[in-house]
Structure formats: structure tokens, C-alpha cells
DNA sequence: AAATCGGGGTG
DNA sequence: CACCCAGATTT
């Protein structure tokens, strides 16, 4: 029988991407991949996924992970509370679930970092529980399938879509849930959907799919100006650890003031870093200090052990050039 | 319900 | 430039 689900499953079997975290059905790997994929393009998280599994191959290793090593493994991926929640979750699983991930969506949802979507994804993909896993792709696909001309971020519309998805669920549930997401990622994409290549176009009610889903306007970002001072003494660089809450919590940063004693200052140029809700307009200066204090690190330490956010990367690269030039002379 | 939390790819 | 991405959590 020709149903939306059958067409979708058939398309998925032939056309899905060959992704590393689909190689086996290990719940641990699926969990890690789902957390990494939150608000992150699959291609962007793949290299992190491979490296992370070598460093932290199982729940026990993750529960015992060194916090700095964990942040270093996540460096550049963003939303760093995700990796802290991974460790918290691993510890809770040791205590509450005999050292394993629980197997139901309801139990998974009680763990740190695992919300409605991720719980459904793990339960359905790893354990074949017949539950939904509604991410941005699924919202887009269903808003178009049913021509939903409402703000999809409202609770009411969200419930409506959930209901539609729930009624559509079929076995094999792991394949079906991933098929909807894959369609959203490859065919039913934002702005310019590839409807002519869509396996379920005959089931789609959207008259203007490019205009869906409807979302509220985004607020403008605030701008903040920062002047950074990169203290250098004897080829070593001073870094501060940021506070444990808020933006880039627990990550390292350059100073925002001059040291008590210094010899000279050299500009490292300007760079504007854009976050979701704020924009940092930065200018940085290299400052040669004549006193060694605590908190100075060698370049290879920074390279291998220190979690420096991408916001500071351009200045770090310029710093490397300067220090390398000095060593040559 | 709205704000917060990263970073990068894309039109 | 704006938008969005296999969202969760806090306010």
C-alpha cells in the first residue's frame, strides 16, 4: 500500500547518509551523537564524535572524566553546558541505573541534558520504543505536510505537531524517526525545499512550502566592546578561567586589563565575534610583562590542554605568529 | 513565554 | 547581512 510512511522509509533506505554514529546501535554512542547534534550541523559534530569516543569510550570513563579534558574535547563545538551535562548524566546513570543508560523515553528525560527530543531519539533509535523524536527537521517537514500557518514555537501549535507526528509513527520506529529528519536535512530544507525530489510530495499540503514553518522575528543582538590584553612573559601566556556560570562558563580567556608591571604593548588587531544573542567587538594587545605570576601557560600547554573558545581564536593565531617569530630571532 | 547558551554554513 | 542547525535549561 502506498502510504506516506512507506514512501519515506523506502526513500530513506536508499538515500540516507552513511554517518558514523549509525554504524551500530550502541546506546552510549547514540546518546553522545544526539547531544553533540543539538543545534549543530551533523557535518560539524562528526570529527568531535570520533575523537570524543576515543577519549571517553564508555559511561564509566565519562563519569570519571577530568573536567578540563572534557572541555578541551568540546572546544569549538559550542554550548559547553552540554559536555558538563554529559558527565553529570554519566554519574547519575552509575548511581540510578546500574551504570547504564535507562531504556525508556520517560526515564531518559529525567537525566541532565536530555530533553523531549533527545529522550525520544535515544529511546526510539537505540531501544526501538515507539515514541516521537521531534527536532527542527521534523517541525519543518510536518508544518509543510499539513500546511500549518501558525507560529510553530507556540505551545499550542507545538502540541498540534506532536499529535500529528505521534499518529504517524510506524515500525521500524528507529528508521522512521531518522527518515523524517533525513528528509528535512536533505530534501525538505529551509527556504528552498527540493520538492521535485521529494518522495512524499503527493502527501504534502503546503501551497508555499518555502514560507514554512512560521517563526517569530528574532531580536537584534546587543553589541559589547572589549579590549583584551595578552600578557606574555618568557614565551608563556597568561590566561584566566571564566566563572562557572553564564556565557563560556569555565572556559579560558585573555585578560581585560593591563598587568601591574609591563614593558611594551603591541597590537594584535581587531575581531568581532558573533554569538546568538550578543556580539563582541574586540581589540587585543600583546603585553610584555617582566614578572612571572601564576596563570601563565606554555604554548604547547594551551594547544593540548586548555579549552580556549573560538571567540579568541583569531588573537591566539596572531599570538602564535609573534611568539614563533621571536623564537626564530 | 522569553531569554540564554556557540559556532559555523549558507543564500 | 540574516537565518538556521538531529535543543535544553533557566528565568
From TrEMBL:
Residue stretches making up the HhH-GPD domain: 36-186
Residues spanning the membrane: none
Protein name, per record: Adenine DNA glycosylase
Keywords: 4Fe-4S, DNA damage, DNA repair, Glycosidase, Hydrolase, Iron, Iron-sulfur, Metal-binding
The family this protein is said to belong to: Belongs to the Nth/MutY family.
A biological process term (GO) from this entry: mismatch repair
Catalytic activity: Hydrolyzes free adenine bases from 7,8-dihydro-8-oxoguanine:adenine mismatched double-stranded DNA, leaving an apurinic site
